[in-house]
Amino acid sequence: MAKKSCAKSFCSVLQSVFAAAGLYGLLYLGVLVIQRGSLPSPKDLIQNPPTLRPGSPSSDSVGQPGLRLPSSKLKVEKINPAANWFNRPESLVVPRDDYLGKRPNVDTVANLTKLVEECRGSYENIEKMPYVYDCLKYMEEGEKEYFYTPARGERASEQPPRRAEYLNSDGADNSLDEYPSYKSASKDSIGQCNGPIVPYHVYWTGPATWRVELFIKSHFYTQNIPCVRLWLWLDGDRDPKAVDKMLNHDPLFEKFLPFVERGDIVLKTWKFPSRIPLPKGDNTDGVGYYKTPGKRNSKNETLVADGLIRDANDQEWLVLTEKQMTFLPVAVSDAVRFVVLHLSGGAYFDMDVVMLRDMRPLLIGDEHSFAERWGGHPSPGDYNTAIMSLTANSSLSSYLLRGGVRMGLNFHPRVIGVMSVKDRRNREFHMLETAAFDPIWTEFNWDRLGRCTVPCIHDYGQVFKGKNAFPLKDEWDSYEGEQLKLASETKSRGHFWEIKTKRDEEISERTTTTEISTQTAVTIDRDALSKAEYRIEQDNYPPTNRTLENFFRGAWTYHVHNQWLKNPEPSSWLNVVQRAQDGFFSHGRLNPYGEKWDGPAIPEYEISWEYT
Ligand SMILES: *[C@@H]1O[C@H](CO)[C@@H](O)[C@H](O)[C@H]1NC(C)=O
Ligand SMILES: *[C@@H]1O[C@H](CO)[C@@H](O)[C@H](O)[C@H]1NC(C)=O
Ligand SMILES: *[C@@H]1O[C@H](CO)[C@@H](O)[C@H](O)[C@H]1NC(C)=O
Ligand SMILES: *[C@@H]1O[C@H](CO)[C@@H](O)[C@H](O)[C@H]1NC(C)=O
């Protein structure tokens, strides 16, 4: 009897365990569906564990080692012999590429206070915060108000490089007396900046994916090349050989090697430092130094406050305890940005960001420390640090760094944010609204008021969609401009960028190698492919009137938010971005500032074979 009831209770325990597991599975699936906008395949479930919420900075920038490009055999098998895709015009309309006008001057500064106030409203009432459309409009049209050139003598380019806040701001370790004259970049030379060179930082683990490509290309597409450097931090705590792998064994990164050579991209191994130098001044956040400092150690250093050491040269250091060093943070990249910006200044970007405008005016003013808001959250401490900037070696950067270390290496932006509000230091750390860097986040969280953005997009999956999806319901609801001219009205054929000839060559190369490697007689009649008449009604991904000009105009960046395994469908918004970039790098299109590309050739994006 006793035995039986024991078995029974065992059964019921098992039952609850199964029920719980089932429920967990459902929730898990639910999260995936919400994130991706579609049901995941079982393969995804194994390869792509969901991250809990979009924008969770803890989950960003991690490569997908499981991701492999499809084999060439697969590619050939996937080619649709009816070949409609092959002759698909790039666009239905003629895009205006130079829509941003002239690039801001090296000394142009954005008044962050103005931008914050204009898009947030007052500090207490944040009455403008939910009006994303209005903020975008302001950023698009208000340059005259929020951009300015400082008075003579106060411009960044006029300051001695020795005192610059950015590491290596003159390309000569801050040793020059003044900045050289401007020289634009060429194939082999990065040129010369007539003002401080600003470092941009990104962090990455694993091999490069098309997302790395998207980020890097967006950088070259929009930034002032001689005046920036892209530092790519690769996690050396996880993989000490990461830099070597990316330089020598990464098929995708190969296309960017000329930029490593030219000096645009600097590959760096990230290792958590055991001590970090701090500037002069009170680094105890007002608590004060120990009345009786500790004994000098063998190196003549003393512990002067909690976690602070002063060396024989009176330099103060933030030290990590033995314990902290062995329990390095799970969210490494959350911490990396604070350390790296403190040490070298500039800006930090998550890799899943697409740059849309020149960032420089946001980064060279006197008070350029900023991050963005966490969605439409109203609290003044709700930061998101996907994109942020700090003045190097400053009181604020030291304070934030020390705070994160003291909280057990917790650099979650909202934790750091709560701390800085409590200590009344958050106003030094500007909070820009989502419109600036992540224009659909507020919408996605159902917090948007006023009009929808242009394009009107409600979730992060939408920009990937091209299939039978034009126009997506209300995509153009907020658009008030003129209708763009149809390309067919200006040219008889859609191929105004000669893209087909290039693709032709690519295909022939690929087909040949496949034939050799697989020994199967896969024959693709390329001539037939290229001659086949394009029939829009047979195309699953027909060209549209989407152009970069109408992609969140005014925003500095667009944040893709994870979704690392997804590829953009042809004719989707992200694909429009890709083609604008490739058109700029390889067939004569202009960038938004009306400039031509003079740098090394950059190969185009891989065709998304799954969508032909
Ligand atoms: C920046 O904007 C603020 C707020 O509108 C204004 O008070 C300040 O004078 C501006 N600063 C500069 C340098 O224009
Ligand atoms: C940091 O600032 C202090 C002055 O506060 C200066 O002495 C020191 O050289 C600076 N360190 C770096 C790395 O720039
Ligand atoms: C240690 O520092 C003190 C005070 O700055 C100095 O007098 C002393 O000579 C130093 N000792 C060594 C070994 O450097
Ligand atoms: C694009 O086409 C849609 C649907 O026909 C239209 O509503 C929208 O205004 C067009 N946009 C532009 C920029 O021409």
Would you summarize the structure shown here?
Residues 44-68, 152-174 are annotated as: Disordered. The chain has helices at 2-36, 42-47, 72-78, 112-120, 132-141, 143-146, 210-222, 242-248, 257-262, 322-326, 332-344, 360-363, 395-406, 413-422, 434-437, 441-444, 487-490, 499-518, 526-531, 573-586, and strands spanning 109-110, 147-148, 198-204, 228-235, 265-270, 275-278, 302-305, 308-310, 316-319, 346-349, 353-355, 370-373, 383-390, 430-432, 557-559. The chain has 612 residues and is of the alpha/beta class.
What would your notes on this structure say?
The chain is of the alpha/beta class. It has a domain of 192 residues. 32% of the residues lie in helices and 11% in strands. It is globular and about 85 Å long. It binds 2-acetamido-2-deoxy-beta-D-glucopyranose (4 copies). One 2-acetamido-2-deoxy-beta-D-glucopyranose (NAG) binds next to loops. One 2-acetamido-2-deoxy-beta-D-glucopyranose binds next to loops.
Looking at this protein, list some descriptive labels.
disordered N terminus; alpha/beta; 4-stranded antiparallel beta sheet; binds 2-acetamido-2-deoxy-beta-D-glucopyranose; 612 residues; 11% strand; 7-stranded mixed beta sheet
